[in-house]
Write a structure and sequence with these properties.
Length: about 230
Amino acid sequence: MKMRLISCALVAAAVVVAGCTKTEKAGQPAESRSSDSPSKAPETTTAALPPGHPDIGGMSTQGLPAGHPDLGMSAQALPPGAMADTANPQWIVPKDWEEGKAAPMRRATFLVKSADGQSAEVAVSAFPGDVGGLLANVNRWRGQIGLGPVAPDEVASITSDVEISGAKVTVVDFQTDGTPAGKSHPQRMIVVTLPHAGNSWFFKMTGDAPLTGAQKETLLQFVKSVKF
């Protein structure tokens, strides 16, 4: 009888201990519980990009929105503050050129118009050094009228050297193969590069090809009038 009471007591104690253990396990915080199944790695989320936003995954250049400018060197603008720290020289403006509005990175702007509605623009700018060299400059300018870059061995076909006031200047001359959208004529660009005192002065005419070609000699005469 005594042994039976002891056995009953032991069983009751075991039931109580088991119940307490189960209760404690159920009340444990989720992060401290152990699990027989492997833990699931936390999911990572990335904020959604707006529609049409370019890909930001490393070096990818895909996914640019329609109409986004090319990211290559040929279409890159020069950084603010890159202009040469020097005063404008004196020059004689041709009588049929009109002064245009001031624009960033320019020393002067002139407009040229013809009786049949053609137009061209002359931009004067100055930068320290050679601004990356002739090839880089040519390809940047070509990109400005929608043309692709040229290889180093093609530069000679669109450039020439002219002596102006005892200095050798480079004349770059090219035009589009066809008529760009929104234009009535092919577009032509003529750039005269004049080096002086460690800076490069650019005299760039851009516009309708027939008028720009007819104004080439006038542009050269304008550059010849420059006095530093």
